[in-house]
Amino acid sequence: MNAEQLNVGRTSSDSRVLYAAITLMVTSILVLACEIAGHIWPRDDVADLLSWMRIGAGLVGLFALAAGAPLALREMGDRRRYAAEATATRRQVETLFQMTDMLQSALGYDDANAVLRATATELLVSFGGALYVFNNSRDRLDLSASWDWPENSLPPETISPAHCWALKRGKPHVNHVGAGALRCEHLAPALLILEIPMMARGEVYGLLCIQSGGANAQARLADIASLAAAVADAMSLALSNIALREKLRTQALRDPLTGLYNRRYMEDILERSANLAERSGGALSVVMIDLDHFKLLNDEHGHALGDAVLREVASAIVGAIRPCDVACRYGGEELLVILPDCSLDDAVLKADVLRARIESLSENHGCRVTASFGVATIPDSSSTVGDILPAADAALYRAKQDGRNRVAAAAHRKDTPIAQLATAAE
Fold it and tell me: What is the pTM of this model?
C-alpha cells in the first residue's frame, strides 16, 4: 500500500469514527430532551411517548457505539504503530548521521571498518555482514571486515569482479538459495546473501554483503534492504575519501613514471636509516645507479621508449631487493637504492645482480640498455649521512670512466681518504 492509499484509508476511518461520535452526541441530547420534557409534561400519554423515544435513542446510540468503538480502537492502535515506526526510523537516521560523522574522522580502512561494524551491529541486528574493497590494481576485491557469519560458511578472502553479479550489473543483487537461483560463484550455497556495490562519484570502491538465515530469511532480508543500501551509501563516501587520500599520499611520496619513491622521501628515509644504523651499530649502504647513454637512447628511439625503459628498470630493481630496502628515483635517469643492515661487500654483490638484470632488458627493446653503479657504506666508506651520497656519486663517476656497465665502490675509510676511490668490482 502506497502513501496515497494509506492516507485515503485513514480519512475514511476518521470519517466513520466522527459520524459515530456525532450520532452518540445527538442521541444523548435527545435522551436529555426527553427527560426534561417528562418533567415539564407529566401526563401518561406524553410519558409513554417520551419513554419510547428514549428507548429508540438508546438503541441508536448503542449501534453507533458498536460501530465506532472498534474503529476508534483500531485507529488508536494504528497511530501507536505509526508513531513507533516513525521513532524507529528517526533513530535509524540519527545512527546513519552518526556513522557518517564518525567516518569523516576515519584515517584509514581499519577505522572505517570499526565504524561500519558498530553501525551494522546496531541497525542490522542478527544479520551477518562483510566488506570487500578493491586492491591497488583493481583486479580483485579483498576482504576488509566481516561479522556474524556462520563458522562453516565464512566469507571468502578475495572476490573476482568477473564472478560477482552485483558488480557486473552495477546494482544490488540477492543471491537466493535453490537449484534455479542465480548466485555468485564465490558464495556458500546455503546462505541467502544481499550484495550491494559501493559506488561514489561514478566509481565502484567496494562491495557490501549482508547474509540472512532461517525460515523467513528472504522476508527479513527484504525488510532491511533499503536500510542496508543506506549504510552502503554512507560507507561508499568514506571509501572514496580514503582512496583519494591514499592516492594523494602516494603522489606525494612516489615518482609517477617509475612508481619508485621520490627524492624527498629518499632524503627522509636515508636520514632515519642512518640514525638507526648508528644506534644499532649496523651498516647502511647506498647504491647509486645511472643508465648509460640514456640521452642518446631518447634521441635515437624517442622519449616513449626512454620512459618504457625507465619503468622496466625500476621494476627490475624492485624485484631484486629485500622488503626492507628502498628504491628511489634520484633524478632524471639516476636511481638510488638504500640497503639497511648491509655491508659494503654485500652491497657490491647486490649491485652486480641489479646490473645484470638491467642489461638483460636490452632484449626487450632492440637496443642496448646498461647502467653504471656506485656503492658507499656507513661506516666502511663514509662516516655520516652527509658523506655517503657524495661517496656513492664519486664511485659512480669512476665506474663510468672505467667503461660503464660496471660496479665501483668507495674505498674503505681505513685505507685511503674518502676522496680517493678504487675499483672494488668490475
Answer: 0.54
